[in-house]
Amino acid sequence: VQLQASGGGLVQPGGSLRLSCAAPGDSLDYYTIAWFRKAPGKKREGVGCIESDDSRTMYAGSVKGRFTMSRDQAKTMVYLQMNNLNPVDSAVYYCNTQVRGESYWGQGTQVTVSS
Fold this sequence. Notes:
Layout lengths: L3 E3 L2 E3 L5 E6 L10 E6 L6 E6 L6 E3 L7 E5 L5 E6 L8 E9 L2 E4 L3 E5 L2
Parallel strand pairs: 2-11
Antiparallel strand pairs: 1-3, 3-8, 4-5, 4-9, 5-6, 7-8, 9-10, 9-11
């Protein structure tokens, strides 16, 4: 599974961004997709995940109520809508899935929250 994350950028505190995760040529309908982030000097942190079967979502406490994961109708994309961003959300964001014990990562997209 080849994942591609996109949508990062520079945003002011309080702003919003929507990240996308895609698997070109493949459907994401059957995969549980997780988002992680890695900031300089910090450990990689799980942000949330969306289940493959019922699209149930779970979020880390640090983003709950601000971030929302969803799938598009064609089931080819998974989105991470990020609202009310603050500087501590600045990181490289990665999407991830696990298939038969193997972990697959997208290339990461940089999110910078700064005034």
